[in-house]
Structures are given as C-alpha cells and as structure tokens.
Amino acid sequence: MDTTIKTYFPELSEKQLNQYAQLKPLYDSWNQQINVISRADMTHFYIRHALHSLGIATVLTFKPQSNVLDVGTGGGFPGIPLAIMFPETQFTLVDSVGKKIKVVQAVADALALDNVKAYHKRAEDVTGTFDFVVSRAVTRMERFVPWVQHKIKAKSKHALSNGILYLKGGNLKEELSPYPKAKIHDLAAHFKEDFFDTKKVVHLPL
Q1: HEC-encoded secondary structure of 51-66
Q2: Beta strands of the chain (E only): which ranges?
C-alpha cells in the first residue's frame, strides 16, 4: 500500500486507509477496459490523483450532512478521494462522458461509498443546490462560473463561504482578475512532492 496519504492524513481510520489502498487496483483494472487515467499518470496515481484531490481537504473540512457537487469528475476526481475522507458528506459526481461515470459508479460500489451519487449529465442540467462545487481544472473560471453559480446554497455553515473549490495549476492572476473575491491556496505549503510546486486550490465564494 502506498503510504503517501497516511503520511499527510495520519488521523484516517483503518477503513479509510483500506479504501484508499483499493483505489489503484480498481483503477488499474478499469483502465484496461476504459481509459480514464493516462497510462503515465497511473505510475504516480496516489500523488497525481488521490493526494491532489485531497488538496481540497487541506483548505476545508466538509461538515456532516453538507452537499458537494463535483463537476467534470472524469474518473472520479476529486470526488471519490474526498468522499472517502468525508464519509458523512454527500457527494454528487457528474460528467458529460457516460463511460467515465460508469467507472465512477463501479468504484463507488466496490468501496461501498453510500455517500456518492454519480450521474451522466452536464453541470447545467444538475438540479438542487450545494454547499460547494469542486472540480479539477475542467475549464477556465469564466466559463465554469456560469455553469454552477445558481447551484450554491445561500446559507453558509463552513469556515469558508459557500462557493467553488477549484484545483488549478500555474499562474492564475489573469484568469482570476474578474474575481477579486477569489483566494488562492498553494498546495506546496502542505505537500512536499515536486508535483505540487505549481498546484493550487482556488476558493471563489458565490
């Protein structure tokens, strides 16, 4: 078992550690049928996918009974690793590619994640409201915000105001210039691996 996650999150239960340990074998198996993660990335699966997803957990602890929407989840990132981390939080994972959602549902079932719902649909077609929308660099912020801005609950109950938690990389100054309320959290402050040198979590209250 890769110990990367345990190193950074020592408070995890045995059940959670076992679920994380099952992730790579599950994705290895599914990747042979449906290519949801690049072959090169599978070598660094726990850092580039699982731990990167958990970068959001370094910025905010989701409360029980809160609702989180993962838009453009692909193979289930960041939603699946976050759902293991926060078992009492409800996660809705959506993607416009049906075969990816098939993998997400299969992984959630294999891990007995009853706090995950996966749907083959676009963000605009999702009904209901959520405390937070999470995503991993699906598109530029000015395209992303209109998809989700009406899906955020008005009343905040977390340490951060309700809104978007977006995993992004590189220089974001120009992209975020229309959003003066956006706050950038550098993941290099939490994770020592070189991969995180330019990786960030952007919090945009909505």
Answers
A1: HHHCHHHHHCCCCCCC
A2: 67-71, 90-95, 116-120, 132-136, 163-169, 183-186, 199-205
Q: What's the whole-model pTM score?
A: 0.97
**Exposed, middle or buried: residue 189 (CB in 10 Å: 0-12, 13-18, 19+)?**
exposed
pLDDT digits (tens, 9 = 90+) for 86-114: 999 999 999 999 999 999 999 999 999 99
Report pLDDT for 39. 83
Identify the CA nearest to 17 among candidates 27, 26, 25, 9.
9
Closest CA to 184 of 116, 175, 77, 30: 175
CATH of 4-205, one of 3.40.630.90, 2.40.10.350, 3.40.50.150, 1.10.150.20: 3.40.50.150
- C-alpha–C-alpha distance, residues 108 and 111, integer Å: 5
Structural domain spans, the chain:
4-205
Alpha-carbon dihedral angle through residues 135, 21, 170, 200, given to the nearest 10 degrees = 70
| Residue range 162-193, pLDDT digits in tens | 999 999 999 999 999 999 999 999 999 999 99
Three-state SS at 69: strand
Cα 124–chain centre separation: 18
